[in-house]
Fold HEAT repeat domain-containing protein.
Amino acid sequence: MANARTRAGSNLLLDEYWESGDDRFVDEVLSLTAGKKLKSLAERWLKDSRPFARRTLLAYIADGCDRPHHRPLVKSLFKLAEKAHDDELVGHFMVAFDRLVERKLVEKSRYDWAGRRSLKVRVLVGTGKHPVRFWGRNDSAPHFSKATRNYLRRRVLRYFRDIGRKDPVRYGKAIRKALVLYRDDHLDKPERLLDAWSLLHMLYHGAAALDRHPDGIRVAKDRSLAELEPAPLWPEAWQGCFEDVLALVTTAKSRTVRVFAVEILKAGYPRELGTLTMARLRPLIANPNEEVQIFAADLLRTAEGISSLTVAEWLELLQIDNPTALGFLCEAIKKHVSPGRLTLDQCVDLACSPVAPVAELGLDWAMTKKAAGVKAIEAILRLGTARAPRVREAAAKWVVSILSTSKEARMTHVRDLVDARYDDVRREALQLFERDVRFKDDPALWSALSESPYDDVRAFLLAHLVQREKALGPATLERIWATTILAVHRGSKQKRTALSQIAARIVAHPGEAEPLVGLLGYALRSVRPPERRAALAAVSRAAFQAPALRSAIGRKLPELSLFQEERA
């Protein structure tokens, strides 16, 4: 079945849905194209007291009031709403009518007689979508003419302007309810904002950046929309209503309206803003809209109860995704929170934030902690994943300085840093590896680095082993490790030689089997199956004679069973 808003409507279904109070009634209305039938709905629809009738009526208006052959129904409903002084309904019409006229920005050539040159300028022109009728009324036309569209916009504005002249309080309440209805997709381009005739009058009636013309609002010469400042129609309607304006900041669906409300609050209610508590500010900070977050974060400086926030509440506030607002929050947390209230892990979490101000704060606080013990070292190793580049670079230097002086530093800690995805962290870790005697000749660390996925790490290791191979005694285990790793990277002939030497050493010195079997496994993984057999045969024969050797092979070389299957 086709979507209800694209298929032809049914009069039978329309009457059935109306009687039963089914919300599908509005879809059926939108699908109809019979003007007279539609017009007959107006009075009973507006006067029906059921919540269903009101709900569907508002949904119908929100569709935009521009369906083919719906002109009679729209005009009848609007006139009835005016007559009934139904401010809410007329507010919905205001939002719909502000979308009836569309212009577009085009580039045109104009000659500058004073400068004697041709200029390219951007101007607003009609899209040509709306019919222009010069021969008078045409009741059979499917859509409103351009003139009627402009008339409807002026008429709905006149309705609210007259209310504001007589009763600014009523006007203010009605307008604020209507402003909530504007959405960002209604005003997503400069030309669409300029076409919102009523909205611009409500918010920027006296703005110097705008010129009002009968054919539409334009940006004044040598001005821009960025210069717009609140200059509302009937300014008194925005006085003495702090709570209503504050609510508009969070409920408005359009950035234009939210920014206007924020500016009204800053200009007209500084005292009230200064007394806002953290309980009132927290939902503003958590608001998904950037301008609201920045506004709320700036108010933190004077918020009541800010010093009593728990660490968990501060950390929750720092989760918002807005660099500008986070800058304000970091200033506030520095002022009101002592680093001693946070654990080392919490500081590291902050330092790993992608937002630079938060990450800098976290690192500064982490560096005030005593990083002693294995757990502390494991905590600060996470700084190698910090996403803010400047923070990560400073953190890597600090972590390396801790490892270089700590007795609890282990090979695995250096290995984890060398495995970092960021080259600045790997560079610091490799420098530690090269200068610290605890790590520079650790065969297990050599083995781990030789299998690194990073070219810079492998190149660094090979250069290091070339130097160490010359310095180490020929009979030492470290020399055998260095020679084997270099052989794996140099070529097949040297690989086979290294395998033979390791196997012979294991057979001759079963007491050294534990480290050598691991090295054997590393070398075996780099050669083809036929090249493995000679070394495995020698080691296997020795294993049958030495139970301790069999145990070492089982722990260090569990894949040996796979090689046995290949041999069979």
In short: The first strand starts at residue 103 and ends at 112. Confidence is low (pLDDT under 50) at residues 1-6, 562-568. The CA atoms of residues 47 and 201 lie 31 Å apart.
